[in-house]
Amino acid sequence: MKTVLITGCSSGYGLETARHFHSQGWTVLATMRTPREGILPRSDRIRVLPLDVTNAESISAALEVSGPIDVLVNNAGIGVVGAFEATPMTHVRKVFETNTFGVMAMTQAVIPQFRSRRSGVVVNVTSSATLAPMPLAAVYTASKMAIEGFMGSLAHELRAFDIRVKLVAPGYAPTTRFAQNTELRIDELIPEAYASFAGPIFAEFARPAMVTKESDVAEAVWHAANDVSGQLRFPAGPDAVALARAS
């Protein structure tokens, strides 16, 4: 029986991914900053663990009690929508701490066990913004683009130890907590000077032609974790698939 450790399982993609892997017979280590009860099935194949990917001690503690794992899914992330000019650099750093450095820290922490067994998969959830950058998401896009470059390079050096690296790029999902997962209000991030520019963009966000469901991402992560073809990037959702084909 295989074991997957998934970060950011309190809601959204992480929660649905945990449910999906469990339904496929895997042991699931569902991690989140503040564990929540009752959101996952009661099962001896599910463990909910506290984990803050920006804290080295928290990472060590989680991996110590996890035991050997077969797949790491780096899903934890925070979003920010707004004009870059109005985004405080303190928040820029916070986004990178979770979306970029947190992913790097988790990956670095599991490599030794994967390397010693010459087996393991790292799956990183990024964004379709890496396929076609959108306005008013410069900081978020940069944090995810960094992971694209990081994992693209890392895939080469880990291949020597039979460790597979995968990237899953979800499309636009208005039902996720992307823009809510920040302490900044949207009106703080859209100065008056940007109002006429931002209005039509937010109007399009409100009526997207295609949207990505949480189940789309869970299935893409599942396929990526089990893929042995050498494919690196997996778009998730109809809009992300369309962007990938066009790029």
What does this structure look like?
This protein is α/β, with parallel strands linked by helices and 247 residues long. It has one domain: Rossmann fold (3-Layer(aba) Sandwich), CATH 3.40.50.720. 45% of the residues lie in helices and 14% in strands. The protein contains eight helices and seven strands. Strands 3-2-1-4-5-6-7 form a seven-stranded parallel sheet, sandwiched between helices. Strand 1, helix 1 (12-23) and strand 2 form a beta-alpha-beta unit. Helix 2 (56-66) runs parallel beside helix 3. The chain is globular. The N and C termini lie far apart (38 Å). The mean pLDDT is 91.
Give a short synopsis of this structure.
This protein has 247 residues and is α/β, with parallel strands linked by helices.
Structural class: alpha/beta
Overall mean pLDDT stands at 91
Number of strands: 7
What is the element string, with H for helices and E for strands? Answer: EHEEHEHEHEHHHEH
CATH architecture: 3-Layer(aba) Sandwich
Distance between the termini: 38 Å
CATH H-level homologous superfamily name: NAD(P)-binding Rossmann-like Domain
Major pleated sheet = 7 strands, parallel
Number of helices: 8
How many independent structural domains? Answer: 1
Strand order of the largest sheet: 3-2-1-4-5-6-7
Radius of gyration: 18 Å
Low confidence ranges? none
- Bin the helical content: 40-55%
